[in-house]
């Protein structure tokens, strides 16, 4: 799908607004119910929410770890995102969009947002990431964990429309998960070559949460050969073909 400059402006606005809204909701949720109540895994549907939240957040954080060349920034971003969720991830994506040059914005902005910006002198320090097979196993296991937990809690505790989920913390958590789904949906729309397939996969994310996320990633991993780096799963077919022989996914001198 071609992405035009007006869409870049829209994405900057979208992720900036998401970050601000989520910050306000997080303050409201924790202020109303207390942090301990928000993460009380003794409440079964809270546990389901936390696992759902953690898997989607983990996928986004894996991209951030791949993208960042500074371990200091990673050490700051990861704990911050674990605590503040889509407040941090949305703000981070908005920042990456604002850092794009005019040429990058007009050419293929989401590619430049996703790619790892790495200096030429870092090439010798490149290390191969996890294998395709290992990643498939990990993502599949996470999807099965989410599915198993959901089915178990549904059987034991009944309907998911539980009073626990309508507390301030519950509402804030589900909105946080929804914002992460928005983030993942933008990625899916970028990757898919047709609006029909994009709509199908985005609908699966909306309906099934992190289970849909895991299924989508595993399916995309099957399009890669075992010799290719896992990071190629981030890119659409055009960019993937361009970068398949470059393990650094384009060294960037402006990093």
UniProtKB/TrEMBL annotation:
Keyword list, A-Z: Membrane, Transmembrane, Transmembrane helix
Domain of life: Eukaryota
Signal peptide: none
Transmembrane segments: 14-33, 45-66, 72-100, 133-155, 161-187, 199-223
Pfam families: DUF1475
InterPro entries: DUF1475 (IPR009943)
Name by which UniProt lists this protein: Uncharacterized protein
UniProt source species: Lactuca sativa (Garden lettuce)
